Amino acid sequence: VNIAESVEVAEYSKDISRVRNKITIRGFAARNEPADGDSWTESLDDWTSWQGIMYLDGSDKKVGDYAVYNLSDGAAHFWRTIASLRVDEGAKLIFWFYALAPRYTSGVVRLRTDADNYFEADIPEGELGIGEWEQKIFSCGKAFQFDAASNPTGIWRKVGVPSWYDITSVAFYVTSQGGLDVHVDGLLFSGLR
User: Is 111 a residue whose pLDDT tops 80?
Assistant: First the structure.
C-alpha cells in the first residue's frame, strides 16, 4: 500500500463577513452644557423675548456675574437658543429661578425642537420662587414624559413632534396678575453624554 496515493490535501475556508454585531459604546453621562454651568445667563446673547423686555442683572444674581431677567406687564415669554443638544435619558435641566409678581398665575418651562414642537413641564405655584431664588431641577428623557396610559406621573407633556435628540432652545412662559419680573440664572443641562 502506497500512502502517498491515499492522502489527499484538503483546505477549508468560511466567509464570516456577514456576521455583524451591534455594539454601542456610551461614555459616562457626566457632561454639562454649557461646560462652565453658567455662560448661558452671563449675557443676553441668544436670548429672545416674545413678551416683556430682557435685561442683564449684575446685582441680583445667584451664580457668576450676571442673571438674565424679563420685565413685563403680566406675561413673560422668553427663551435661550442653543446649539442642538441630544438630551439622553436621565439628563437634568437645572436653573436658578425667581419671580416678583403680585399674584402668580402659571409658569412652564419648554424644551423646544422648534416653536411648534416641544416638551413642556409646569413650574408649580408653590415652587415658583416668589421673591427669592430657588433651584429647579427637571429630569429629562422619555421615562419622564407624560402618557395617560403608560406614564401618568410623567412631568413633560409632548406638544407636536419634538425630539429629545434635537433640543434647540429652553423657553420660559410665566404669567401673573399685574407686573412681573422673572429672573433666571445658572441655566444648564447636566448628565449629558
Answer: yes
Using one digit for the tens of pLDDT, what is the confidence trace for 176-186?
Answer: 877 888 999 99
CA distance 95 to 175: 19
In the chain, what percentage of residues exceed pLDDT 70?
Answer: 82
Residue 50, amino acid: W
pLDDT in tens, 60-87: 999 999 999 999 988 899 999 999 999 9
Check: CB of residue 68 under 8 Å from CB of residue 38.
no
Grid cell for residue 3: 500512502
Q: From 119, 125, 190, select the one nearest 157 (Cα to Cα).
A: 119
Verdict on whether the full-model pTM lies above 0.85? no
CB atoms within 10 A of CB 42: 20
